[in-house]
Specification:
This protein has 369 residues and is mainly α. It has a domain at 2-255. The chain contains 13 helices and 2 strands. A two-stranded antiparallel ribbon has the order 1-2.
Amino acid sequence: MIYFAILLTALVLTVIFTPISARLGHRLGLVDRPGARRKHTGIVPRTGGLAIAAAFTVTLLALLVLMSGALPDLTTSWLPPQNDPKEGRRFLALLVGGAFCAFFGFLDDRYEFSSLPQYAIQTAAALIAITGLIFIKHVNNPFTSGSLFGPDGFPWWLIGPLTIFWFVGMMNTVNFLDGLNGLVAGVTVIFCAILAIHMIFVIQPPQLSVAVLPVALLGVGLGFLFFNFGPARVFMGSSGSYFLGFVLAALGIIGGARLATVLLILGLPILDVAWLIYSRLRRGVPPSQGGRDHLHLRLRDNGLAERTIVVAYWAFCALFGGLTLLLDDRIYKLVALIGLGVIGLLVLIWAARTAPKDEAVSPARQSGR
């Protein structure tokens, strides 16, 4: 019952905040117009990320107040029990880091930062997470019951760089993926639904108190989809892609280092980013510049309908993400990851060979249309 209340609260707040953020975008002139890389119709504000961040933050703040016992007259026995005394610090770091990403993403939308300031923002967000004890300490060994690098996990000198790489990579993956109406929001919904089920029903002991995080973001994603699924009335912009990338990266760590789960759900978008960086470097093009050589945009230029591509992405992510709920053995998960990589690579090669040759990359905004 508590999870349904959290989901409904986040959803309703998003439905309330999104039109407000859209009006703010129109008033400030933060809008996308059709042309060049952008294939949408009409003038669409790109400030929806502010609503996403605000709805998630308000929902989580309310939960933190209740969990802290700050309202003694209110019965809180229905709240999930906390198993880790450091959860509050991690939740706070998630809030601070998310607000940081949304704020600087908003500035990025307004002033159109170059790639170097964007990477600096992403790195700073990762450092906020590390300060709040959100870092990658270990990764399960797929061949044994232990962890890589032994029971103590990664050495101290590797934890920081590895965690920064994880956050920067996830934020750029979401940023690069934000190219079709409803694509990122739908993938976020699938990610959060699978992660919540995993935390509540699959792993033992269940992580009931931590599961409120993906449930809240699930409600936010569903609420935003109402406005963002084509034809979109608002885009999330950099404020949304930075925020979601940061939160998804953090959830993959807070949820018990379920990195294999994250990689299976987001395997195709991550593989697309790796392929895009490789292909652009091979052509002598900076990876940070905008273009229509993303997989979803290549499929669009090949003549596939936008909704078909978006739903296919959702299905792909849901299929491989669902395998994490069915596969207990680490070897099977490794095989699934390899299978995902092979299938994704074949799709990328096919799309690269069949897409129109006009892939000129311009210094346009990377996120958005």
